[in-house]
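Q: Can I see a sequence and its folded structure?
A: Here is a first one.
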Amino acid sequence: TNDIKTSKVKSAKNKLKRINPTTTIKTFNLRIDRINISKIIKDYDYIVDGSDNFNTKFLLNDYALKFKKFLVIGAISKFDGHLFTYNFRSKKIPCLRCFF
């Protein structure tokens, strides 16, 4: 209940900082699109998706593949949770679109 009316990115950052206060976490509380995504993900090795729609998940997948990033995607459906990890730096490259 402490996180009601708190953005997902701020809530996640606060919780992660409590786990490890020395971790540097940079959050982006904005809608990712084809215009701004390259500038945002190019400097990072790991991309963690907290979006709630397939278009954003597919966009992150496409650009993580393009820039050879490690991608973590979380999803929920009613009472089921799912976690997917993709290492696009490896030679064997799975495709997110293949799972949906």
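Q: Show me another, different protein.
A: A second, unrelated one:
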Amino acid sequence: MILVTVGTQKFPFNRLLKKVDDLIDQRVITDTVMGQTGHSDYRLQNYSGREFFGEEEFYSLINQCEILITHGGIGTITKGLLLKKKVIIVPRRKEYGEHIDNHQREIGERFSEMGYAVLCESPDRLEVALEEIHKMERKDFRLSWFHSAGFVRKYLSAAEAERL
């Protein structure tokens, strides 16, 4: 099963949801797919889903899936990695009105650089990302305070510099 999640931000992420629909329609994706659509107004055509799931149900869905396709939310990414899932990160983008800035891309880059996930810069590249995730050797993820604190510190410094 593939779980697609766009998070809880009050912005749509229609591009990702529609691309998954297109790939199912083209038979690129043949697995069962479940979607969490959030505040998107796109209506799923070829797979099931809901706007939001309760915490326990969401955790259960992540636990059941083989591949987690997610926005760049650090909480969802780390849940997937801790549950040993293959994670594809498709960051929301400011220029499409999907977020207030492009920090999700930076988060995705970092997890990708460390070899934990595949960064998919745009939903248009999702087919390639699916090929990459199937070839990727899974690396055990350990949530350590040192690495997390360093990552957060680096991100906050960069964000502060942008504001100046």
